[in-house]
Here is the input.
Amino acid sequence: MKLNEIKDNEGSTKNRKRLGRGIGSGSGKTAGRGVKGQKARSGVAINGFEGGQMPIYRRLPKRGFNNIFASEFVVVSLGRIQAAVDAKKLDASKTVDAAALKAAGVIRRAKDGVRVLADGELKAKISLEVAGASKSAIEKIEKAGGSVKLLAAAAE
Here is the structure.
């Protein structure tokens, strides 16, 4: 195979439809837009328009807001941490923090910190350094002989 012989797989590309090119093309005259009316013309913007009736997004009440300053934590379950320890991806003898979890492939990115939840069983004795943990998760970790150090949220 040479560079000049490279081509796409058969049927992977389709030629674009050439609109308004005469009656013989099958899509001449109105170019597949039907006849007359607002949608046949250019500059149509009718998403959410209900013919003058009060649109649904204005009829329904608005509630709540999105807090742009809220911290977004990555949630990790105890079962997931135990699985990583079993697979020898996490070293239980060292402190487990966000960087260690990322290196082990438990989380993809740390975002604003890691929060540990009590899902699953933990047998390994590990010391965690995380941004947050549920009460039941802390209980399970300490029952297994480990410890949890909660990091203070990043300074404003």
